[in-house]
Amino acid sequence: MKLRIIPKLILNLFKRPLTVKFPAESLSIPDDYRGKHNFSPDKCLGCGECAKICPNKAIEMVEVKQKDGTIKKQPKIDINKCCFCRLCEDVCPTKAIHLTKKIPFANENTIYEKKHIYNE
Amino acid sequence: MKKRKMKKDIFNNYQEFLFGPAHPGSGNFSVRIKLDGEQVVEAKSDPGYLHRGFEKLMEYRNIWQNAVLSDRICVFEPVAWNLLFAEAVEKLAEVEVPERAKYIRVILAELSRIQSHLIWFGSLSSATGFDTGFKIAFGYRDYILDIFSEICGGRVYPAGFISPGGLRRDLPQGTENRILKVLDKIKQVISYFEKEDPVFESRTKGIGVLKLEDAVKLGATGQVLRASGFLQDVRKSEPYEIYQETDFAVPILKEGDAYSRFKVGLLEIEESVKIIKQLLNKIPSGPSLNKKMKVGMPFTLPENEAYVRNETARGEGAIYIRGKGEVNPDRVKIKGPSFVHLIPVLEFLLKGAEIADIPIIYWSLNGCPADMDR
User: For B233-269, b where at least 16 C-beta lie within 10 A, e where not — what string?
Assistant: First the structure.
């Protein structure tokens, strides 16, 4: 019984570990992953559908001053409340919001200071 | 007379303790146990640590928001509950589901059953002190989670991917081949668990025996009932989605002990692999979502009621839904399979058991405190 283990042990010495050294390299993330939001203000119509459907009420419509001086309504996303369900992306008529592959939150300010994505 | 009383007091001095909710082998659930030496005299389930009030929360949300919420009913098999909620809404509002969506739904449900069983085997082997089994099961489960993250966008929670009327997104290209590769990996795990391990067998054989009469009387479902020798499966008796067109067997055993429950689960994984392989070749082309049921479209639930039951990995799960002619449902009732297994069945099996067998009996029932407390 014991002898049977030895060849496997030797083989395992030359195997690569399954884990990766995270910040330097990471596992491949699929394209359709529900990660951090990407919001493009130019496409947004300000209809507020995303704020209506958000199950956690993480989206709030706020008035934002544009470059030409007009005031336009835009969604403000609170990442702390978000459950990453992608309903806001599916409901958006112009695809102004979409969820990206970005997932590492721990080393960014988003979690502790409520910094919102469109201010970055 | 006084002497007799003294004796009685000594003999009745049972020791009481709690199994859980912080015990590593009991997830967020506790059992109050009365011990006489090494033997359990009385056991009482003490649920409620994971109550989140889903039934009330669902009365304040529309169907798409509820589909997202329905994942969280059971942590170990969110896809199955997602499917159940979607089916309940479809039955209530008489919504048609495209054929393609039905095939993909069944494939996802069966993958979810396999990964749920792997969690079960992992925790059962850690309960017997066999930690290698725990690591093997959880390691191989991640291959299925990778598939989920590719299709649904998240490893564990699909977040309403199976929405009323079909699926929110289509299958990404080339997923079928990747699923087949994962099924090969699952065959490897089955071969690991099929190896006869004398330690595991001696710890599970003849322990927690649930006879057929008791199983029926206490209302057990799923593999707990099938391990006692009763053939019952909702996929066969009341086929939903595309199950009537698939060819699979329902494994049953007669012993009714912890080992046969584990063995039934192992045979079920093989059947699930068979179902997925059959369906992968036959997925029809076409839309995967009913055009009238796109996210955010105006939709009201009619004044009617519907009751839908499914065979989830743990047993028979069901959802009752009642509409009132508004966007939100009037009442939603969730029936989790673990409610029966973790209260009457567990209390019955623990009576007379030894203290060292408590985790094994608990985990052999494949309970999930999350779907019991809701």
Answer: bbbeeeebbbbeebebebbbbebbbbbbbbbbbbbbb
